[in-house]
Amino acid sequence: MVYWFGEPIRPHLERMRRSRGRGALWGAGFVLAVLLLVAGLGVSRRSGEQLQEATRALTHTREVLESLADISARMSEVESSARSFAISGKQSHLNPFYTAAKSVPPQVDELKHLLRSDPGSLESLTQIEPVITQHLKVMKDMVELGNRNLFRGFGQRGLTDEGSKLMEQIRGALSSMEKEQRARLAQQQAKLAAKTDHVALISFAGSALAGVLVLACAMATFGAVHRRRKADEKLDRLLGSMPDGLFIVNAEGKIVSSNAQAEKLFGYSDRELQGESMALLVPERFRQTQRQYYAGYFSQRSGRMPTTTLELCGLHKDGREFPIEMSTKPLALDNGSVVTSAIRDITGRKQVEKQISKLNKELELRAVELETAYKELEAFSYSVSHDLRSPLQNIDSFSQILIEDYANRLDSDGRDYVQRLRASCQHMEEIIDALLALSNMMRSELQIEAFDLSALANTVAADLKLKNPDRLVDWVIAEGLSVEGDPQLLRVVLENLFGNAWKFTANRPRARIEFGALPQSNGARTYFVRDDGAGFDMARAASLFTPFKRLHDQSEFRGTGIGLATVQRVIQRHRGKIWAEGVVDRGATFCFTLTDDGGAPNGRNHDSTPPK
Prior knowledge:
13% strand, alpha+beta, flat, disordered C terminus, disordered N terminus
């Protein structure tokens, strides 16, 4: 019993124990290798940072040396150009002098900035900087004497000696600084070389350790194969759930595989489609185009194959045709010899496009009809205005004759009737003129430009003052209101709004009319015209901008009833809005914007202070 259970079984137990020991040892070794690699990466990163720091220090020292050389060269050029001009008087020496003299102070400032972490060198530069400034001054004095042809007579020896002395000091100081920087450069180069060797050694060790890890990872590949198989199965399920028919096509245009949606679209199973040409899925008239399409697509295989989309007509297995959209792109395989074509039924989209096209044609027809009606209306308005104006002028003329020649035959009532008749004719003519002006204004093209709206407001106000200079009106017009718009049309706006304010404050012993702007939260401005006149009832505000809708009796305040309608048309043409706020016998405020993103009635634009 001991022999049977002891001797035969013991080797198996030993092998299992050794196998487990090897597995544990391999796992520990792998963990240790990973830890060593991480540590090596940390050391490598630190060494890399030190290498970068040494490289930056070396580059900084080279920049300092270049700056010292530039300053020295510029100073020599300043001295040479100044002396050459002072002696020869040639203007060609002036440009180099001024260019060099102008560049020296910024170069000194730049060098001071570079030396901000080097106190010793910075102190040396600070000490020599006044000498550089003095040298530049001496050279400028030399040039000024040369400009007046006085250099040889007055300042040649003194300025030359002083400039040479200063230049020697400058060269000595710059040379000393340069020696220090070059010594530092040599040290930094040696340090950089040592760091480079250190980093190379660490990189080699890291590469070796990484190789060990790669070998270890290779042993895990067998498990990845199993996971890949599961991923492929998941991909098959995903392709089966796609809403588009998906086809894998080779370079000959033959179908390699298809998904379930492809069968729903065309009626062929995956087995029926394998090995068939993609041309099978389109009518005969498109098959040559289909073959050329795939041939051209695969001919670009040497470069990066693009993703393309093509609209065609699909052919169902039962012979039914329907519109399709096909998108083709390369499949991510090693040989790149196949592509995927996703095909979608776009019957619904084509129907929508057809409806949109039909609507567009109807809109074009409506636009033509509208333009024709507009022209006919325009001709009609001119014809009516002419036909109305002629009899009105006759009535007005004959009424005037009655007053002038037959006044002694009419009693007071008769003369009053004739006067009223004349007033009605004149008012009718004013209405006709206003309608024609409104029609012309709506036809004219906008001439947008930037201009001073405040200046235009002052001009309109001045015109009103001339009509009735005896009235006491306090005008308050904000300055500096610049806008972009049509100056002529915006003048019409101000004339109507100012005219209304002038008219509705006529009963005030001393009136106030104000024009200004209110800032909006989005940066736009709301302009306003405010008065302390008759005002209006806000319940009737909706009728303000309707032609011929008047809120006051004609006998109380004369007008055509078209002015505010004209104002609204102009503001709308500028993509703006207009509204009004008022209180009966306490004035009114008309607000407007000139853009489509500013202003709205807010209940605070109207000053309800009682009139004075």
